[in-house]
Design goal:
The radius of gyration is 39 Å and the shape is globular. It has helices at residues 2-48, 53-59, 72-81, 90-129, 131-144, 146-149, 159-178, 183-191, 195-228, 240-270, 275-292, 298-329, 334-365, 372-386, 396-404, 408-422, 428-462, 496-502, 511-514, and strands at residues 561-562, 565-566. The chain has a two-stranded antiparallel ribbon with strand order 1-2. By secondary structure, it is mainly alpha-helical. The protein contains 19 helices and 2 strands. Helix 5 packs across helix 7. The protein starts with a helix and ends with a strand.
């Protein structure tokens, strides 16, 4: 019995020691879990801004975090004292700042382009009243003196003279036809309509004007080429007749359309409550909705800028016609001009504001810099300078028409009709005044041309595009752009300056003579292409294909566009 008691004591002591040994790691696990919980508590305290929690965790490392620490007062204190660093996303904020600077630069850069484009349109418009009659007289003198002088190059008239005569004949025929259109009857007919009808009519007229401008220049170009292309048989000249009648019909219809536009604007000016004028100006802001949220590239924005230049000049001519008609009705009273002045300024200001807002947001949404407008201005300047070259293949007024969709013939016919019906020339003093006015127009045209030519040469040099002036014109296939030749001949360096000085005053020569004046192109020939293939990491060989139309040279774009989208 004694031995049994001893064995029981030994077994009980053994089990108690085993329990104590098992309790040691359990307490260690508790310490580790408590330590982890305290670390999590410290991390949570740091995120909430309680930096003093580290000291508390050292004192009470083995205890659980008290729930009273997460009080509403501490949360509010954390919200008031927490901070952050913008440097962690520096690139994004710099990009946003640049976008703001770009939007602030857009009005200045856009108005510089508009100002330059306005005087380009004015130069082409004044050409029809000043230099075109003189050029037609010189062509007729050449035709009359043919029996004495003979044919020097086998042609009765030069191609440029034929085109000038065709323009003058079209203007005279349309001017005579416009005398059979009663402006007063049209005014009262439009004034009798309701405001909503007039608003719809004005919108329809704007769309029709763009469509006429798009198709009209093609009709005129077809007439000029049909009349001047080399023909082997005399019967081939008969084809000029249908083209001529088509051109006359187009100019007459377009003139009627512009006349209805001017009459609707005149009714809006003379309305008592000015509600129609307000609705017509609000139509400009609808244009923002249709343009801003579309995807634009640099080429599309260039076409839209040209369209805006043409539209602004067209509106100025319409406002001039409205002022002339109103001044005639009030017997040329100067006081009535000040009555019209606020409305004229309101129309012009709304047009400028819409253009600025539209271009600002288009450049913002499409990541286009404000420097692109200087490229557009250089491209327009290149057209002006290239029309004075030896290898020029078109008149400058036709180049402006193709680039901007601005056709000055209908506006010139309508303005001539309004001026002749509003004024009466009687007596010698009136004739002298008319001659003085005509010579003043010639002086204005010459001065405008000289200043434009000087500024254009400056813009072309700044853009480093002088070498393109001595290249032959691209032979485009119908509906496609011509590809650049792989190799070009080089001209001696010593003769480049002489060619630049002689190219402005010399006459066009044949294509075989102009081939010798080619200059090889370098990396600057890729100027005004968009988007740049190298900037996006796309191989140059893969730039053709479906994205080819978006990467064409701006100098090769001569199609008029509607809302910035090219018509192919």
């Amino acid at each position: 019995g004694h031995m049994a008691a001893v064995c029981l004591c030994f077994i009980s002591s053994h089990f108690s020691s085993r329990q104590k040994m098992a309790a040691v790691p359990e307490s260690g696990d508790n310490r580790e879990s408590a330590g982890r919980s305290s670390e999590r508590g410290v991390h949570q305290a740091e995120t909430l801004g309680f930096y003093e929690a580290k000291e508390e965790s050292n004192k009470h490392a083995g205890q659980k975090r008290n729930l009273s620490d997460l009080s509403l007062l501490r949360f509010i204190s954390a919200e008031l004292t927490r901070g952050y660093l913008l440097e962690h996303n520096e690139a994004k904020y710099k990009e946003r700042r640049e976008k703001v600077y770009t939007c602030l630069r857009i009005p200045r850069e856009l108005e510089k382009l508009m100002f330059f484009g306005f005087f380009l349109c004015l130069d082409a418009f004044l050409y029809l009243f000043t230099l075109l009659p003189l050029r037609v007289l010189l062509a007729l003198m050449r035709f009359i003196t043919l029996p004495c002088c003979g044919l020097s190059d086998g042609r009765l008239l030069q191609p440029a003279q034929v085109c000038d005569i065709l323009k003058a004949v079209i203007m005279i025929i349309c001017f005579v036809m416009m005398h059979y259109v009663d402006y007063s009857m049209m005014y009262h007919l439009i004034r009798g309509q309701s405001v909503i009808k007039l608003y719809i009519i004005y919108n329809m007229l704007e769309v029709a004007d763009r469509l006429f401008s798009s198709f009209g220049q093609d009709i005129l170009d077809a007439l000029y080429w049909t009349a001047t292309e080399p023909k082997k048989k005399k019967r081939a000249h008969i084809g000029v007749i249908p083209h001529f009648f088509m051109a006359v019909l187009y100019v007459f219809l377009h003139t009627i359309l512009v006349m209805v536009q001017a009459t609707t604007l005149n009714v809006a000016f003379n309305s008592h409550n000015k509600s129609l004028l307000t609705i017509m100006m609000s139509n400009n802001f609808v244009e923002i909705k249709g343009s801003v949220f579309k995807k634009f590239e640099k080429n599309n924005l260039f076409q839209m800028s040209n369209s805006d230049i043409r539209e602004r000049f067209n509106n100025y001519v319409l406002l001039l016609i409205v002022c002339l008609r109103n001044m005639e009705q009030f017997s040329w009273n100067p006081d009535h001009l000040w009555v019209l002045f606020p409305d004229v300024c309101m129309v012009i200001a709304s047009e400028m504001a819409v253009d600025v807002v539209k271009h600002a947001f288009i450049t913002k949404f499409n990541d286009i810099t404000a420097d692109v407008y200087s490229e557009y201005r250089a491209s327009l300047a290149f057209d002006l300078v290239s029309s004075r070259q030896k290898n020029a293949y078109t008149d400058y007024s036709d180049t402006v028409s193709r680039r901007m969709g601005f056709i000055p013939l209908p506006l010139a016919v309508l303005l001539s009709r309004v001026i002749t019906s509003s004024t009466k020339i009687q007596g010698a003093l009136a004739i002298v005044s008319l001659l003085v006015f005509y010579f003043g127009l010639i002086a204005l045209k010459v001065l405008n041309s000289i200043v434009l030519l000087g500024k254009s040469c400056q813009y072309v040099k700044e853009a480093k595009m002088e070498e393109k002036l001595f290249q032959t014109p691209p032979a485009n296939t119908p509906g496609k752009f011509a590809k650049k030749p792989a190799s070009k001949a080089k001209s001696p360096q010593g003769t480049s300056e002489e060619m630049q000085s002689e190219s402005i005053i010399s006459q066009p020569v044949s294509l075989s003579e102009s081939v010798s004046t080619l200059v090889s192109s370098n990396s600057s020939d890729q100027f005004l292409t968009t988007p740049d293939v190298e900037d996006k990491g796309v191989p140059q060989g893969k730039s053709d294909g479906k994205h080819c139309s978006s990467k064409e040279d701006l100098l090769e774009i001569d199609r008029f566009t509607i809302c910035g989208n090219r018509i192919d």
